[in-house]
Amino acid sequence: MRNSVNRPPTPDAVEIQQKRPTLEEIINIKLIESGEKERLMELLRERLTECGWKDDMKSLCRALIQKKGRNNVTVDDLVHVITPEGRASIPDSIKAELLQRIRTFLLQAAV
Amino acid sequence: MSSKINHDHHHQRINGQTSPPPCPHLAEFHARNGSKPFRVLQDCLRVKPPGGRAAIRRDPSEVPRCGACGQSSRPRLYACVACATIYCHASPGPSHAAAHATSMPPGHEIAVDVDRAELFCCACRDQVYDRDFDAAVVLSQTATLKSATIQSSTPENLRKRRRVDYRHWSPDLRERTLMGSGSSPLDWSMDPPWGLRGLNNLGNTCFMNSVLQALLHTPPLRNYFLSDRHNRYYCQQKNGVTSNNNNNLNGSGRRNAGGVDSKNARLCLACDMDAMFSAVFSGDRAPYSPSKFLYSWWQHAANLASYEQQDAHEFFISMLDGIHEKVEKDKHKHPNQGHGECCIAHRVFSGILRSDVMCMTCGFTSTTYDPCVDISLDLEPHQGSSAKTVSAKAHHSFNGEADPINTSQACGISTLMGCLDRFTRPERLGSDQKFFCQQCQVRQESLKQMSIRKLPLVSCFHIKRFEHSSIRKMSRKIDRNLQFPFALDLSPYLSSSILRSRFGNRVFPFDGEDSDASNEMSSEFELFAVITHTGKLDAGHYVTYLRLSDRWYKCDDAWVTQVNENIVRAAQGYMIFYVQKMLYYKASGKQVNARYNDSKGTKGTLNQFCTGQVT
Q: What ipTM was reported for this prediction?
């Protein structure tokens, strides 16, 4: 891309290398590189749509927009409001299924 | 908070939604970066699996991570469009993306979500939209071949039609005298209302009577014939149906000057309809025998000519076809059936369906448009549920028509909207129905999705109650009750809505430029007729329920009675008719028949017989 002269100075890259990557980071990268993360995301989307979670979140967003007015709501506002509610209302079965998938993946990736 | 939107901007509607005007930062970005500021981003669009989501990656195996904190596991990562650095964004928590926008000189506010390919303004902290960018995203997701256009009968066929303001017209003195001498006014306050007349059964002809009753009260069709748009005397004279003409032929025997067989020249289903309209709306209450019409129809559909019970839907299709056939085809160069330019039958009933077939291997999507005069819907497969719960929940559904579809499906009640949902749902074409993919050049498993490209003036929904199984060599009738609303909004089934759910909120019009104006303003429909079938497959009876001035009338052959609307709700709908709530004038350059000019010179055309609100 052009405008590389506008890039922030390179010290950022040096800083990253000095921090040791967390376990979460390592797993995340492994998931992305193998393509498993995409598959898990698709599975998660499917499950959350099936059980009506997506529709519930949509209703929440609509309610918020109606309350605050269409022109007074940003994406960030919506994310901020529905994140805690969303995280709390995910069915346990879906959590279990995804955890199982990740566990299986890690076992097979560790070999 | 969101930036104050400049309300002077022109709010155009794309895909049925108002396209938001750009925030000041986006506007500045455009001004600074010329005509195609996002073109570089387009090269980074990655779509996988085929037909799936679009992401932004510099190279396919890139693992995006925040340039400030090095994290790659953050849920929202944005790439600055100006300098291509990726930053994380959490709100209200620490946002390196917002910090970047404020710390850099102006021009770094616009970023793109790397996982969702959606534009974001870090200063306004809100999503923004750009048409060219969305166009690129949609195109990358459909993976169309760049060289050839695939769509058959593309929207380019649509002539741009301006909408014309309704101009009130009243007759001048000369016209008043003309009307007064040749007609008598209808008294619309009469009770029972005009046009209600029983039809005698001529021998298992309830299939015909039921359809005729519905058509006699289809507002645009009724208006057309009652305003003398198809004058049977003039039509027969034009076709040379007089004994004089036959004698003056030069030797070729049966053919007259028009090149039409003299026997068929007498046959014009529209003329017979005209006669029927005149008879039914004459004020005479004695039941009418549509024998002339039956005879004409037999001649048109010889294979169905018998005294056996026929299928009402089959008759409906055959009849519309018969009206269409008699139109002089030389007047219109390429009569476009889908737009109803050929005959009144298509003008009223014809819509356009869009079919998308997507190859599941490469994502290539093939789109076709087909005209249709009705929509045939399958009933949902039988859902097991105890009788008690069904009746209890049914009561709730009746009272609140805004109930979500889920509730009714959960307790086993079929609704018309449920059927329409199934009709427009993506359907997997299995391994035995592989579709030839032009990109892969082999037959592949595909995903097919239907949607409504153009709504007709009158929507007829045909419920497929007669199941013919060639495997089991038997046919049966599905008696399950279907709930249908009195007012219906078809906008969720339009192509623009269906495609929006596939591609997300994009301001690139999915369906070609022209579709929106005509569709989204007129997607509200009102129920006016229901044809029901009772009994078995081979021994049954058709009855029509008509809604006139918000009262319901049951038309059972020669017997017409007023009934309560709950009777209609409980009836077994077979063909359900809805008419557009608001009819709009369209400007049309074509003049159909000079006879219908009024003295002021405004041309009367097929398009301009509808006025304002439908009663």
A: 0.81
